[in-house]
UniProtKB/TrEMBL annotation:
Family of this protein: Belongs to the LysR transcriptional regulatory family.
Coiled coil: none
HTH lysR-type domain residues: 8-65
Protein name: Transcriptional regulator, LysR family
Alphabetized GO MF terms: DNA-binding transcription factor activity; transcription cis-regulatory region binding
Superkingdom in the source lineage: Bacteria
Keywords: DNA-binding, Transcription, Transcription regulation
Amino acid sequence: MTPRRHALTPEALEMMDTIARTGSFAAAARELGKVPSALTYSVRQLEEALDALLFDRRSRQAQLTPAGDELLREGRRLLQQIDTVANRVQRVANGWETELAIAVDNIVAPAALFDLIDAFFTLPSGVGDDTVATGQTASGHRGPPTRLKLLDEVMAGTWEALVTGQADLAIGVTLPGAAFEDIQTAVLGPLRMVMAVAPHHPLAREAAPLCSDTIARHRIVAIADSAKRHDPITVGVQAGQDVLTVPSVAAKLEAQLRGLGCGRLPENLVRRHAEAGRLVVLETEEPPREIELHYAWRRSAAQGRALGWWLSQLESVTTRRALMEQHAGLLL
């Protein structure tokens, strides 16, 4: 260890912070429980190790030099990082994950998802004496110590995020044919998809029920699968059909509201737009498509408290139904 690194101890940084905050060596010495001469000696040792003058000796007050000001600024940042590391180690030891990554398929209702996130952030962490009933801590942290990371995925990309280790939990996945021993799944629920177009779209004037050949003559709006390694899933696009590819359900809805194409959307998302006259639900020879979505997570003997909380919420029928059905507010 170099002399400079040896000199930059948390105690030395705390000393610099106290001197600057109190405005004098004497006041800092009283706060730190030392005599002023001992504090002056410690500062001189630090200056010698860094080969830099930290305080202007010409001033009666503890006036920092530019070098001292830089050390104070960086020292405060380092002390905060040390505290952060110590706190996170304690929290992990207490059962909370440092981070929980959740891959969410774009088809899942965002309002219900953010209701869950809001509920998670109001949980008390149960760590330390500074936690109060609302989950707010004295340091300003709200909720458990686990950082949430949301991954916005589509179709095969949602499953891929889980199996490649990018996510700890995946919500809204369609299961592949092959099983994975280290992954557990549960049913989220069925999602009914209906064909819809804007009232001014040509298909709205066609006689019902529409056959696949009639639909194929018109542009379809499709959401791009976010998978990068796995084979992407393509649903509903017929051979030779013109395609407008968009990145999300919100973009697909907007495109169809503008009459830029046709396509299937969740019935719960379409319903209010149809009632308001912004979309027309088309009767087709092919019945409405129903897909079964799941949620999945990695098996672990040491499941963290954050993942445990999310899985307990997903066991609720009401929660699962909300995630499947609360699309109504999207783009209204």
